[in-house]
Amino acid sequence: MKGRVNAGLIAGGLLVGLVVLAALVSFVWTPHDPTLVDAARKLQPPGDGYLLGADKFGRDTLSQLMVGARTTLYVGIVAVGIAALIGTPLGLIAGMTPRGWLSELIMRINDLVFAFPALLLAVMLGAVYGASTLTAMIAIGVATVPAFARIGRAATMQVMVTDYVLAARAAGRRRSAIAVRHVLPNIGSVLIVQASVSFAIAILAEAALSFLGFGTRPPTPSWGRMLQEAQELLFSTPRLALWPGVAIALAVLGFNLLGDGLRDYLDPKLRRAHAGR
Amino acid sequence: MILFLLKRVAVLLVSTAIAGVVVFAFMALLPGDPAEVALGVNATPEAVAALREQFGTDRPPVAQFLDWFGGLATGDFGTSYVTSTPIGPQIADRLGVTAVLVIGGMLIALVVAVPAGTFAAVHHRNPLGAAISAFSQVGIAIPAFLAGILLVFVFAVQAQVLPSGGYVPISEDPGAWLRGLLLPWLSLGIVQGAVLTRYVRSAVLDVMREDFLRTARAKGRGRLGALWRHGLRNASIPVVTVLGLQLATLLIGAVVVERIFVIPGLGDLLLNGVAGRDLLLVQGVVMVLVVAVLVINFVVDAAYALLDPRLRGAR
Q1: How far apart are CA B20 and CA B287, in angstroms?
Q2: Which of B157, B206, B286 is nearest residue A235 as measured by Cβ atoms?
Q3: Is this prediction's pTM over 0.95?
Q4: CATH code at A262?
Q5: Each residue of A43-99: pLDDT tens digit?
Q6: In angstroms, what separates the C-alpha of B206 from chain A's closest C-alpha?
Q7: In terms of residue numbers, what domain contains A101?
Q8: 3-state secondary structure of A47
Q9: Which residues of B touch A150 (CB under 8 A)?
């Protein structure tokens, strides 16, 4: 049974929709070329076709924000994709044989990966291969694998003791068949919620990495680097820091609300368990 | 209890060793020979070979690893190929600064979250409690570096009451030390406080539904009195887990905050090491941070067992 559509789901959906819309529109139209350097427009205040003004190179802030949304979503999708594709099967295997050596091995490796946060992985990758959007995505993705493995394992263990799985096992179905036919569809909603929450964390990580210079390279616009470039001008032109800051916060808030809202919508049982949150 | 702790210590030691292998193997993948890099393109092969021998990079990787990893135990992180200075003392100097930053941030998070979360739980049916929940949701969406920039804008640019960056050692001027650290602490603490508030609220709400609390209320204790006597220890178990996770987050968050406020901590050392291609230094700092996360996880597990004896048998 599905829950009712709730306020968090709507608010989160709208915020995420806004980011997606900005990213999609930026493929076909932006007010100006986001990478166009124009000395005459240097630090231009908002107005005259530049709705949010221009930065120290005369680049249009709004256009940069729109293309930055693209970077953010791109990193989020690839990173969460890596984490889900690696973490989910691991969690599934560990959850279906919770007492086996394989399960133990997976969870121990998981704990170890957990000790390498995205930022450290990205710095290491950046030191060896040179920092780029790709190294940032891989670092964030790998660091998020344990989250999917853990939640996948816990959810699988719950499904494994249900009557329909017991019946399927008694009927002699193979483990792989049970995993695909019974377990995966039933842990899907938990994984979707995890994906949404992980997406929010990935956005934060990408922004932090770009801020430090370990993510997207110039001239590709990115919210984190916009903030970093704005920091030195904080005393003279604080609005340059305002817009990317607002964009990051709204995008993260959107994915967090969407995750919570989906949890309530997809699984009313979980809502009661998490009523306190 | 002792058996449980011994098991966790064993896991910690094995994890540390494997983490060491991973970090070493990763850095060893790096293209380029440190000796060649140090001497430049015009060096004679003899000079490169001599320097390689001096660095010890002519030996087999396993021997190099054992030498490096064995040295870590005694605080010997090797000598930088780039600056020719020992790495251990640099890390030791910076570790203290980062530790002060992280602990201060954690304290601010606790000071914000425990009262706010408890209040939001006790008043979860009225608007003020809901307002705290909504506020914490917004706080979670603000990364520490954004909070830092906002705080610099308000307190350094607008009000001009605190410095926008820089670090003065406490031995030189305690007042300036404190003023310099206030904004970095707040940047780390407020955001983590917002995250923690949600968990404190959730934990206190769960405890409020427990029978033992109802009994305590029935015996005539007030709502807060009953919570204080019987609730907080029970509510602290889930909160301690999150606190441990957050300490790790704060440690990494400190890397970014150090960059914003120009604080000479481990993060600053790490980023400078990458910029200067000082790989042995990067290797050392990464190892210290990873071990710190592993130790934090170990302490969380041990704290669990102390707080809730039922968990000792598990795992």
Answers
A1: 7
A2: B157
A3: no
A4: 1.10.3720.10
A5: 777 777 777 777 777 788 888 898 899 999 999 999 999 999 999 999 999 988 878
A6: 7
A7: 7-22+61-267
A8: strand
A9: none
